[in-house]
Amino acid sequence: MRVLAAFDKFKDSLSAPEACAAAARAIAAMGKGWEVDSCPLADGGDGFADVLTQSAGGSKTRLTVAGPRGEPVAASIGFVPLERLPGEARVQLGAVAGEPGGSIAVIEMAAASGLALLAPGARDPLLASSWGTGELIRFASGARVRAILLGVGGSATHDLGLGALAALGIGFTTSAGIRLNPPTPATWPRIRSIDGRISGCMPPILIACDVDNPLLGPRGAVAAYGSQKGLKAEDAPALEVETARMASLVCRHFGQPESLMAVPGAGAAGGIAFSLMAAAGATLLNGFDLVASWLGLDARLADADIVLTGEGRFDDTSLRGKGPGAVVRRARALGKSVHVFAGQISLTGDFPGLESHAINPPGLPLADALAQAPALLALAVERAMSGQ
Q: Which of 94-103, 116-125, 169-178 is the least confident region?
């Protein structure tokens, strides 16, 4: 029996590799001699760079950069030779992978500018900056890579990526000519002009993005993601107005049409996708499709007899989104037996061929469930597989 363990992270408790390892240990302990193929997933957020770099046998460089509130944080950049990627992944990367040789740098925004880096009481998008992400991009651009792949999930920021642009040399100045560093939303009312351009030596920037939110409006960055980043409801209208003003400044300075704000995905990660498109000609890629091809997921699903997947919470929206939901859809299309494990399961429909397992015992406090997540997941996997 061949089992594919393709887990995403369990937020605040298990990374994707840790979840896969817990499932593999549980199956090994059963003594049935089953083969387990561990395939940690990445959605562009925490673990994106590690998962993709390790899967392709790349190397990592660790740096100290500015965190979302300016505090020093350690973050890694992955460097992966393009020749080590599956052909399908190189196709999705486009022209940057069309010639032999060279490497791609893999960066996750969450490592430098992530929400998980801040205690709940310190989360405030008016004060958070993407400066550290810009530092990672700057370092990667100096490494003579063919392209930079940026995962933008899990960000703490709504600074339009202006902090990242400032770290790359772009100036945001007041009417008195004073540069504001970093240019967080709290400082935006003072900003009147922009100066500078991205260096011509910057390699192509590819943004792995699985959301289609525009920058502004009822589905824009403020409305869709502001509250989860700590934005107070009473501050949202003013931030929306300033977002529109600053985005117009960016468009004018870099000679881009204001229609760029409406591009699906422009609102990703507090607007960093918008600004990198405007300033550096960045390209948006379907994040999970790229990850799936990078990991050879379809071939691994085809080889599996049983598929295990999961994340912290799994509900109806998971089946319409990325990560484990996409694994479920692809595995069911192949007629595979699929088991989903999550701290919480909330499915309202009937999904033939899908078995779901909530790993948290009823009544267990959340703090205890998070602390015991490896054991709880292993126990749930053992119970589910015992009847196979």
A: 94-103
